[in-house]
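Note to self: keep these together.
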Amino acid sequence: MNKSKLIAAVAAGAAALSLAVGKHLGILLIMCAIVVSCRAGRQGNDIEVEEILFESYKKTEAPLNESKMKWVETIELRDGGKADCAQMTVSKILWYGNRYWVLDTVQNTLVVYDDSGEAIARVGIRGRGPQEYLKISDFTITDRGEVVLLDGNQDVLIFYDHELKFIRKEKLKRDISRLMGLESGLYLMNISSWETKGNEFKVILADEAQTEQKGFIENDGLNDPNYEFPYIGFSGDAKDGIFFLKPIDDNVYLFDKNGLKTRYHFDFGVHTVKESYRKEIEKNQADVFAGTFLVNSVYVAKNYCLGMVFERGNFYSFYLDKQSSLRYDLTSYGYFMGCNEGYAFFYVFDPMGKQEAIRINKISFS
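Structure:
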């Protein structure tokens, strides 16, 4: 694989996007989007398909009332000698074991915070040693409490126990970009777009030995193998389902304990990014960024959905009301980072880089 070419392409694309929208590079790391269905159908293998007309939802300036947003808790992350919080860019948030697990792919750290926001531990050590990592692309926590780092530079998985002590390092059998730990040693793995061998599917179910058990989401070839947007990939939990999104794709996928359950297809009308542009993103950057597409993470509930969308040069978080067909702007709460354990998480990001502290909003919706 030509990773240097990929990294250069991502850097160039990120810089172009930053110039195009006047935002800090970190904005690319914390964006997401989701909307809601208005027509439903069935596809083979009992997969539910919902067609979503994004622009049919009317924007409103009205705030969400208490019947929809039950409460908001703002947490200020404090370094505690474990992290440089003032320089952080939050790339992923996981709420697990009454702790906030915060990944920063810019500073290349995974820091654990207690429920008050005090940093209490840093996972792993950066370096080239046998127990060290070079680049954290993603992480997950298994049902046994093991923390698994995906090192995209060394092409390895690094395992730590519940006390964050090193267990082992395993070479990857496939090129993967994201992963999600399931029960009984199983994983959902997102096959990298630059993988050239055995890339029939975008997502596979693999066992503890990384042996493929099943493939999901056939690879349609609508991607640029030399360009990959930062994204969370898998988000959610076993209770509410696991959502998968990889930009640029107008489809979001929901997995439950039985496998792939639902495909949400988003129709952005005349602002949909053309398929030919998706295959050559660098060449068509101006047209790509003039369109509308989903990024980062997704969450869909029965009566609402949450997310963030890139829409013709702007990013904003939103709440989409299925019943009223209204779209509420939640950007004042921060950038939506996904949901798990019944909570939605927003990263309060200052695009001018003037924040003195990093804050996240933890919100309960109904």
